[in-house]
Design brief:
Layout: E1 5-9, E2 13-16, H1 17-21, E3 25-29, E4 34-39, E5 42-52, E6 57-62, E7 65-73, H2 74-81, E8 94-96, E9 101-106, E10 113-114, E11 119-125, E12 128-133, E13 138-143, E14 150-151, E15 156-160
Antiparallel strand pairs: 1-2, 1-7, 3-4, 4-5, 5-6, 6-7, 8-15, 9-11, 9-14, 10-13, 11-12, 13-15
């Protein structure tokens, strides 16, 4: 496999590395968020507005216009072709009791926004306190237990929107 990549801009313009190299583009990072781009002897300032490192997607502002840019290397392209992309991964929409126990505390409320690994509730099982954390970022849709409830293994505790 050679070192190639694919650059997708606004989900419609797709450039392969060989095409990109032939565009006479030179890119220099000024600092963490700012870039200097030279294309066909014309200078542009670009700013990285946002970045999602996990899927290599970026929002780039050039001359007041925002562009959605996604970069894929050979491995990313192969994973997508095989159907193993993260976009196909099943979204976790609920938290179920991993074991029977007693709900000691609930640290969230309906409508609350939580981040991945935020503590949702405390489940006591076998005289041990177990902190159940959020499997993903999201908004709490419903809480199906109350403080002091006993729960069975697999019982639905919390749902996400």
């Amino acid at each position: 496999m050679n070192d190639s990549y694919q650059l997708k801009v606004n989900s419609d313009l797709v450039l392969e590395s060989s095409e990109f190299d032939n565009q006479n583009i030179d890119l220099v990072r000024i600092d963490k968020k700012n870039l200097h781009v030279l294309k066909n002897n014309q200078s542009f300032k670009a700013e990285i507005v946002s970045e999602q490192f996990d899927d290599r997607s970026y929002t780039i502002a050039v001359n007041g216009n925002n562009y959605q840019v996604k970069i894929q290397n050979n491995l990313d392209q192969l994973i997508n072709q095989l159907g193993f992309s993260l976009a196909n991964a099943k979204q976790v929409n609920s938290v179920k009791a991993p074991m029977p126990g007693l709900i000691l505390d609930i640290n969230v409320s309906v409508g609350q926004e939580v981040a991945e690994n935020d503590n949702l509730l405390i489940l006591e099982a076998m005289k041990m306190e177990n902190n159940l954390s959020s499997p993903r970022a999201g908004i709490i849709k419903s809480i199906n237990v109350s403080k002091g409830d006993t729960v069975d293994k697999g019982q639905l505790l919390i749902e996400f929107e």
